[in-house]
Design goal:
This protein is an alpha/beta fold. The chain has 8 helices and 11 strands. Helix 6 packs across helix 8. The N and C termini lie far apart (52 Å).
Amino acid sequence: MQPKATRNLTNDTLTGTDIPMRILVVEDDKDAASWLVKGLKESSHIVDHATDGESGFELASDGNYDVLVVDRMLPKLDGLELIRRLRAKENAVPILILSALSDVDERVKGLRSGGDDYLAKPYAFAELLARVEGLGARKLLDPKDAKLRVFDLELDLLTRTVARGGTPIILQPREFKLLEYLVRNAGHIVTRTMLLENVWDYHFDPQTNVIDVHISRLRGKLDKGFATPLLQTVRGAGYMIRAH
C-alpha cells in the first residue's frame, strides 16, 4: 500500500494540490473509467479502479484512500448503497458521486446517502479534478486551520459554510470557491486573470463577463443587509475583500 500523503494547509488553497492523493474510481463504463483514471494519473494522483459496486466496497473498506469517485448506477451493488454501507462502518472517506441523474431529487438522495459532493454527467474533467482535490484537501485539513475570517465574515472550509455576523449565507460551489480565494487574499487586489486561473482554471481573454456575473451575485449575497460592504471593486485593477 502506498504511504498516505500529509501536508500543512495553513497557507495552501484547497485546489490544485501538488501532493498525490490515493483515489478509488468505481465506474462500470469502460471508456468513461479509462478516460477518468488516465486524467487523474496525469494529474499526479495514485488511482485504483473498480468495475462494480461490490469490488468497490471491498477496496474502499480495505484501502486507505483520500477520495472515492463513485458512479451512481453500478452492477452488483448500487452506488448509493455502497456509500451507505461505508458510512455504516464509520468510514468517513470523502466521496464524489457521478451520475447521469441530474435533477434535484437525485442530488438530494446522493448527499443524504452519505456522499460529500455530486457531479452530473456529462462533466468537464477540470471541474471533476477541482472537486476531487477539494474533497481530498478537506480530509487533510487540520481543524484549527479550517476557518477563514475577515471582519464579521467567516468561512468554514470543512463544512463549506459561510456566515456573516452569525447569519448563514448560502453559496453555490463556484461562489464559495470564489469567495475563498478572495478571502485568502484579503486586503490585496485580485485581478480578473488571477480569478480565471485560480477559480475557474481558465487561461483565456480576461474580458469575458463570467467574472462580472459571479462577482455581482456574490456581492448581493455577501453585502445585502449589512452596513459595511466587504466585496470591493477596484476600478481598472480587479477586486478586493476588505472591511472599509
